[in-house]
């Protein structure tokens, strides 16, 4: 048996044996937000405004950005569908976004992430 399990967050499924199969097992899993779409970058000098379509059930978004060709990403989070990031002038940047849902696990709150969006590139101005 299983609950609605369509909303983001913690979900469960219960398996109950029948006939010669006895016992019950409950399994917990997480429904994560869908992949973020429609990522757009708007440049104003050294600032890039990242905007994207709202992901149903998301409690926030993680934005990753890096200089084009670099191996390491920098990260920032926000709870809205846009974020302004100040970067270095005259540099090509790559950006990707993923949605997350915060869930209670015992006494602590953790984030469960959806898939990353496609990478979008833009060059900052002076």
What does this structure look like?
By secondary structure, the chain is mostly beta strands. It contains no helices and ten strands. The strands form three sheets. Strands 5, 6, 8, 9 and 10 form a five-stranded antiparallel beta sheet that branches. Strands 3-4-7 form a three-stranded antiparallel beta sheet, with no helix packed on it. β3 and β4 form a beta hairpin. The radius of gyration is 20 Å and the shape is elongated.
Give the key terms:
single chain, 126 residues, mainly beta, five-stranded antiparallel β-sheet, three-stranded antiparallel β-sheet, 10 strands, 54% strand, elongated
Question: What's the short story on this structure?
Answer:
With 126 residues, the chain is mainly β. Helices cover 0% and strands 54% of the residues. The strands form three sheets. Strands 5, 6, 8, 9 and 10 form a five-stranded antiparallel beta sheet that branches. A three-stranded antiparallel beta sheet has the order 3-4-7, with no helix packed on it.
């Amino acid at each position: 048996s299983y609950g609605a399990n369509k909303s983001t967050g913690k979900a469960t499924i219960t398996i109950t044996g029948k006939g010669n199969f006895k016992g019950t097992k409950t399994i917990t899993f997480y429904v994560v937000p869908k992949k973020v779409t429609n990522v757009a970058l708007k440049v104003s000098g050294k600032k890039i405004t990242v905007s994207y379509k709202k992901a149903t059930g998301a409690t926030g978004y993680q934005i990753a950005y890096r200089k084009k060709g670099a191996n390491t990403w920098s990260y920032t989070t926000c709870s809205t569908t846009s974020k302004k990031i100040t970067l270095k002038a005259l540099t090509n940047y790559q950006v990707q976004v993923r949605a997350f849902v915060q869930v209670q696990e015992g006494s602590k709150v953790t984030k469960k992430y959806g898939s990353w969006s496609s990478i979008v590139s833009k060059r900052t101005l002076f």
